[in-house]
Design goal:
about 750 residues, binds calcium ion, single chain, alpha+beta, 5-stranded mixed beta sheet, Methanol Dehydrogenase, Chain A
Length: about 750
């Protein structure tokens, strides 16, 4: 049944280091389309943004036409009071404008909208300012991230958004900088390097701003880093404080009492985990309660993943996979709650956290809610971190339940893979990933973009830390797929996700919309009794918030991951979303997507009632898998190539190869020239400038040839499967796996 996890693996993979995809958009081309900003417009933007401060964000409901902060409000509910677009009027919703990003890499950003100006981010940490009414570009800022840095971006060179504050716009860059821009012009005001450039840190998350401090985290735990967040003075960029999430080198002094406490839960034995970094990165979610003066952060997985390698003496390994409450004035820890003690499955707790005041058992409770990767939905008392309740929101096999008395999960013995490989749910992509949820105070429901995926975990008994590679402690041969067509089909069909409406008080699902595939987009709920969600199959859809009934959809022609926002300009309500496929799953997956969507260019789409803009019709050509060159192989060579492929290649090119990737070379389509230059590429580094690094440090010429033999053999197998009756019987899973769509929207087909 290994194959069943092949796709789950891809996704994992997607968590990987695929520096490879080509995004050839040159910096110069981006700047060429930047229009000169008129003095009048500059002055208007300066006026609108200069007054943007904490008081405006706290009172956001008094200006519902704006979307002032990442989650709209500090409690990150992502629910808008706007209701001109509602269940009665939504049939008239149509495209108001679109703006083409010029890139096929993933779009994950939540736009900020201030008085008719929209600030959005894109691949390579580019920032755009648009007229939110017309879509006209006002300015564009490109931080010029060196493209080779993409190899450290486990999950695509994405960015989840900017922050705006007192006349400036802030962005974290893939290469670890925090940049403050003049909101009116896009000119750099200041920038600081927030990470050690010698370590594989990346920033994809949106900064949050609290009381004139810009808070920024980072990522990189798959490669090996030590997690932390830092606060910088919003005006000057001066560092205010830094909070580490896991202890460092035990021979050095502790940075804080929190680290002294955490260090007691790491029992290294023979491990030198601090050299790998320990992990615990804060790469996405934060929330803030101004009354309690608490900043909440979500903490990620361990480096390496495998706890038997990372901390062989046992221990909870605080503060991995935890929600933490921190005093934003000085960066000291107030409370912690660990969702997955001793995490060994990549179960990050960096997922979206929502603050709300709920009636539970007849009592008003100030809660924080999270659906982390581990599959349990947590409701905590946000004043002190006490567990109120936790129930599984997707199928969970690693633990039976969360014990109410201890607040700890009760692990299933079968979830331990130190001796034998184990299939476990959820997998490393989680029951829920970074895609934002929303909470509607009208329905009292939390809406979850849920994933239903498993993974086969196996220990890498030969693990050795290598700063140039992934460092998970996971045996990647467990992701080698079956060659039985029925199992291949079953694996493809098992890739599923859904939109769940979750009652956080009773801890049960009220309704769900089952999606055909997974990695569907983040959520927005509105007072119009609507939920908006972009889908992996290229639709942008609206559902009734109380029932899940589909009430509207729009063919966006590209898979959508990002969360929508809504705002108003001149009295008209808009709904906007950054539509572009990629990210951890999208990069390498071959899951069924709409035949016409794959690799289409990303766009910002804005809708309003009676909108009359139109998207260009995509022109799509589908190319069958070409016959590979003849090659004489031996069973021993194929087996060797298969192992090496899954150790070094599958993390980017996909386990088993049955896929049409979104951005990385699909090796089944390798030309005769590629085959002829194989060793020069694999070991000689001929494509290093495109992100395909040399593997000469781990592969000999015979190894590279064995990998080529495996690729040729798998390609032949794919062609046979695609020409078999399976293609006719399972078009929904094989149609997109058996052809490569080439999309053009520039001109009509000849
Ligand atoms: Ca991870």
């Amino acid at each position: 049944m290994r194959i069943e996890h092949r796709l789950a693996v891809c996704m994992l993979v997607a968590l990987s280091a695929c520096g490879t995809q080509e995004d050839t958009t040159p910096t110069s081309e981006l700047s060429e389309r930047t229009p000169a900003v008129g003095a009048q417009l500059q002055s208007a933007i300066a006026t609108a943004t200069t007054s943007l401060d904490g008081a405006r964000i706290i009172n956001a409901d008094s200006e519902p036409g704006n979307w002032l902060a990442h989650g709209r409000t500090y409690d990150e509910q992502r629910h808008s009071p706007l209701q001109d677009i509602n269940t009665d009027t939504v049939a008239d919703l149509d495209l108001a404008w679109h703006w083409d990003t010029g890139t096929t890499r993933g779009l994950e950003a939540t736009p900020i909208v201030v008085d008719g100006v929209m600030f959005t981010t894109g691949p390579w940490s580019v920032v755009w300012a648009h007229d939110a009414k017309t879509g006209a570009l006002i300015w564009e800022y490109d931080p010029a991230v060196p493209r080779e840095y993409g190899k450290y971006a486990c999950c695509d060179v994405v960015n989840r958004g900017a922050a705006a504050w007192k006349g400036r716009v802030y962005v974290g860059t893939i290469d670890g900088r925090l940049v403050a821009l003049n909101a009116a012009t896009g000119a750099v005001d200041w920038e600081v390097q927030t990470t050690d450039p010698e370590r594989p840190y990346t920033i994809t998350g949106a900064p949050r701003i609290i009381k004139d401090k810009v808070i920024i985290g980072n990522g990189g735990a798959e490669y090996g880093v030590r997690g932390y967040i830092t606060a910088y003075d919003a005006t000057t960029g001066a560092e205010q404080w830094r909070f580490y999430t896991v202890p460092g080198d035990p021979s050095l002094p502790f940075e804080s009492p929190a680290m002294e406490m955490a260090a007691k839960t790491w029992r290294a034995g023979s491990s030198r985990w601090w050299e790998v970094g320990g992990g615990g990165t804060v790469w996405d979610s934060m929330a803030f309660d101004p009354d309690l003066n608490l900043l909440y952060i979500g903490v990620g997985n361990g480096s390496p993943w495998n706890r038997y390698i990372r901390s062989p003496g046992g221990g909870d390994n605080l503060f991995l996979s935890s929600m933490l409450a921190i005093n934003p004035d000085n960066g000291t820890l107030v409370w912690h709650y660990q969702t997955t003690p001793g995490d060994t499955w990549d179960y990050t707790a960096v997922q979206h956290m929502i603050l709300a005041d709920l009636q539970i058992g007849g009592e008003p409770r100030k809660v924080i809610m999270q659906a982390p990767k581990n599959g349990f939905f947590y409701v905590l008392d946000r004043t002190n971190g006490e567990l109120i309740s936790a129930e599984a929101y997707v199928p969970v096999t690693w633990a039976s339940h969360v014990d109410q008395e201890t607040g700890r999960p009760v692990e299933n013995p079968d979830a331990h893979y130190a001796n034998d490989p184990q299939e476990i749910r959820p997998g490393p992509l989680g029951g829920h990933n970074w895609q934002p949820m929303s909470y509607s105070p009208d329905t009292n429901l939390v809406y979850i973009p849920a994933l239903d995926l498993s993974f086969v975990y196996a220990q890498d008994n030969a693990f050795q830390y290598n700063p140039e590679e992934w460092n998970m402690g996971i045996d990647t041969s467990a992701m080698i797929p079956s060659k039985d067509p029925d199992e291949v089909i079953a694996a493809l069909q098992a890739v599923r996700g859904h939109l769940a409406a979750w009652d956080p008080v009773s801890q049960r699902e009220v309704w769900r919309v089952q999606h055909a595939t997974t990695w569907n987009g983040g959520l927005l709920s509105t007072a119009g009794n609507l939920i908006f969600q972009g889908l992996a199959d290229g639709r942008f859809a609206a559902f009734k918030a109380d029932s899940g009934e589909l009430v509207w959809e729009f063919p966006a022609n590209v898979g959508i991951m990002a969360a929508p926002v809504t705002y108003a300009v001149d009295g008209e309500q808009y709904v906007a979303v950054a539509a572009g496929w990629g990210g951890a799953f999208g990069l390498t997956s071959g899951v069924p997507r709409h035949r016409d969507n794959v690799m289409a260019e990303g766009r910002i789409l804005a809708f309003k009632l009676g909108g009359n803009a139109e998207l260009p019709e995509p022109q799509v050509t589908h190319i069958n898998i070409p016959q590979p060159p003849d090659m004489r192989t031996t069973p021993e060579q194929l087996a060797h190539g298969e192992l090496l492929y899954h150790r070094y290649c599958a993390l980017c090119h996909g386990p088993g190869l049955l896929q049409s990737t979104a951005g990385i070379a699909d090796l089944r389509y390798s030309t005769p020239e590629i085959h002829a230059s194989w060793d020069a590429i694999v070991r000689g580094g001929a494509f290093a400038g495109r992100g395909m690094a040399s593997f000469a440090h781990v592969l000999e010429p015979a190894d590279s040839e064995a990998i080529r033999a495996y690729v040729v053999n798998q390609t032949l197998g794919n062609i046979a499967l695609c020409e078999s009756e399976y293609r006719r019987n399972y078009p929904e899973v094989l149609d997109t796996a058996c052809v490569m769509p080439v999309v053009s929207t520039d001109a009509p087909a000849p």
